[in-house]
Amino acid sequence: MPVTGVGVHQTGGASSASPTEGKHANMNSQPDNDQSDNGCNHQGPNQNHKSEHGDRPGMQALPMPVPDPPIQYTKLFISNEWHESCSGRKIPVYNPATGELLCEVEEADAEDVDKAVRSARATFQMGSPWRSMDASDRGHLLNRLADLVERDRLLLATLEALDSGKVFLMAYFVDLMATIKTLRYYGGWADKIHGKTIPVDGEYFTYTRHEPIGVCGQIIPWNFPLMMFAWKIAPALCCGNTVVIKPAEQTPLSALHMAALIKEAGFPPGVVNVLPGYGQTAGCAISHHMDIDKVAFTGSTAVGKLIQKAAGDSNLKRVTLELGGKNPNIVFADCDLEYAVEQAHSGLFFNQGQCCLAGSRVFVEEPIYEEFVRRSVERARSKVLGNPLLPGVDQGPQIDQKQFDKIMELIESGKREGATLECGGSPWGQQGLFIQPTVFSNVTDNMRIAKEEIFGPVQQIMCFRSIHEVIQRANATHYGLAAGVFTNDIDKALTVSSALQAGMVWVNCYNAMSAQCPFGGFKMSGNGRELGEYALQEYTEVKAVTIKISQKNS
Amino acid sequence: MWQELFINNQWQDAVSGKTFPTINPATGEVICQVAEADEADVDKAVKAAHNAFKLGSPWRRMDASHRGLLLNRLADAIERDSAYLAELETLDNGKPYAVAYTVDLPNVVKCLRYYAGWADKWEGKTIPIDGDYFCYTRLEPIGVCGQIIPWNFPLLMQAWKLGPALATGNTVVMKVAEQTPLTALYVASLIKEVGFPEGVVNILPGMGPSAGAAIAKHMDVDKVAFTGSTEVGHLIQQASGSSNLKKVTLELGGKSPNIILSDANMEDAVEQSHFALFFNQGQCCCAGSRTYVQADIYDEFVERSVERAKRRVVGNPFDLKTEQGPQVDQEQFNKILGYISSGKREGAKLMCGGGVAADRGYFIQPTVFGDVQDNMTIAREEIFGPDIDKAICLQWARAGTV
Description:
The complex is a heterodimer.
Chain A: H1 17-25, H2 45-53, E1 76-78, E2 81-83, E3 90-94, E4 101-106, H3 110-123, H4 129-132, H5 135-151, H6 153-164, H7 168-189, E5 197-198, E6 204-212, E7 215-219, H8 225-238, E8 242-246, H9 253-265, E9 272-274, H10 279-288, E10 294-298, H11 301-313, E11 318-322, E12 328-331, H12 337-349, E13 361-365, H13 369-381, H14 401-416, E14 420-423, E15 438-441, H15 448-451, E16 458-464, H16 467-475, E17 482-486, H17 490-499, E18 504-507, E19 526-527, H18 534-538, E20 540-548
Helix pairs in contact in A: 3-10, 5-7, 5-9, 6-7, 7-8, 12-13
Chain B: E1 5-7, E2 10-12, E3 19-24, E4 29-35, H1 39-52, H2 58-61, H3 64-80, H4 82-93, H5 97-118, E5 126-127, E6 135-136, E7 144-148, H6 154-167, E8 171-176, H7 182-194, E9 201-205, H8 208-216, E10 223-227, H9 230-242, E11 247-251, E12 257-260, H10 266-278, E13 290-294, H11 295-311, H12 330-345, E14 349-352, E15 367-370, H13 377-380, E16 387-393, H14 396-399
């Protein structure tokens, strides 16, 4: 399929849309598509429309990208104002599907980080509007922000697809939905962050306050730019912190639009500051900053280690990390085979394979191994690559040349080290950063493709014989983010999920995420949890206050 | 204006066809007739709520977060219509419009938003019990909740009842006070508008001894929540015991002590104590109706309180200058005047007020009694009117008790 340029005009009613939308918008759908299995990743487009807009019967027309979307915001956002960078430098922003330059944005460096931190610090002072606001008002602001994102959903989804190369319909139904729901979820928590009263020994009245930590530096990646932005700012603001957030240099556009919405929603100046910049400069400045109280980072394990070192080296700022994964997806012979194949497929290939959660080691029990591989290959071959803005396209380009090269290198290693290349294995199309959906079988645990995070559309399928063996092999990694288990045997499901060293285990599903459920990894996949009630702990500092009283009574 | 029963998202007459008048307490005039629910209507409503609660129903299958979204939408709709709702509340209840609009309505909206936020955060646990078991708790909705609410804060009481019940996934049969049914019925129309499935909320105007009793003793109501007098609270609890042992929560009366020590800021204390009693025409379960004042500041406190009470502006509740409207109905009006008589009779010192404040409607003068002894009727019983008692509090420092 030909790749067209920026701002391509969509013709109406793509006839191939229905079966396609069913496939990718319903990443985790049960065959009967019911709502019980709900999360941000698997409501079909029709269901989404119903739940958001009341009872509208019948099919909805597919949303279309905004043609020639305006890119209004390209500067640094500090104190609710737009600033040029201190250095005068800019970052070029490309459309990875076409290689075209979309625009330039201001590039933040250490000096700009300083400015932003000063603003965030001032806004955090006792007595400031932000500190003295009712907690319920913070929640109200987050809900207003969600309303504005909903209003601008088409535009944001278009910008996101252009900037990151992700499929527009995915951006609309998955990324945008998750963003809205996450903001609303934390909007609801704001005035429910309770301290406790504690019966200590002695004539004392003791209580704890759950205070905001302070100025939070947040560094987010390019694979889910907008969704990561929401995952970071929502719990931070809900708890009353102020934020200096650095979106990835590859994908700053949706974050900058959010900055404008943050101002429109009514957040006081300095509560959120958005600084596009590079990791080695702006990111480094944040992680080393002596006046940032906490840093939250999502990205590679390699950079996660640098962040942790920087915190130790500077002011011992609190650190939370969401890093890589080499996630095992374990398929037992007693599973629903067709369903497991589909789940394993989307569990790997979602977002062009650029997911920390990608189920990149599919362990299949021997009796069904051959059939599983055969069906997986057939499924991979049916994928439609092309312009991510067009309906009917399943897979867009990889984010940039560096990622492209790394993925191709790992594919070559797979071939060289003796895995069986079942399909794909080469670039796709006449230009750019597309890679064919690739499946390797007969992968052994010592191969690079079995050990290293590929972050591309490359699926590894390995064989196992016993439950004990597969648990041990699944856990034999420094990573520990997620895992999948497919079986109809409750005992196997409970046994395996207890044994896996993974922060998230999915039973008979994959990538089932929702704002209410905590997200994070064991071991070198990270520290701390995002989403759910658990994220509140990461953005709260506990203060115990003990007051002498003349006579204690229980 | 909505004047019928709201069952299964539909408006309907009572099975019996009966109606009752709702009165404007500022004038004594009938506002309109409202359908009167009785046992047969309660049965219908409970059936609707029961169906809406069945496993597999839209309400049971709904994401918890979506329940929260519906509650937020209801809050938005109420906010949108707050001027109208405040007017209707004032017309039916008599509270000053300025207060309905700036206090009742915003608190209704906040309450619903608060519970909207809880809907998907009400979490069970996994528990490490002894033995080879996986043990977890689910926090499930109870089921069909009967809710009986009073007339003193009609909208606010409705929100306090609906918010937590709906956030946690229950279905509701709510009997609203016969004195003040109108705003709750309007909110029912908003409940339908924003998309709550049918049968989730059912609203029945009716009388306590008929509709209320039917709810309290119903074999298919899983929980009853009641706000009102302690006297009726007794009946509700007994009814639960006589029927299906339904869970009971009760918010009843009070005779709340307000203790003023001599190191208090005099001006603040006088104003707060005044507000504590006189707010909402004294029709508050938490009214600070026993004001204990430490001996050395007693005289000045009483003098200032009397002066403040004399300044209280009683009048047409739609007038923005009015601080105090009428009492809610004839029955309350008579009861309060009865207490005032008993106060005079038993030897309390009438410092100001003590009589009727207008020649139509149910207006009573702001009244202050001094030198009240703890054994007097007005010191023991809940008056629910603009009548404050102040007592001398001696020996506080030494005895340590009041």
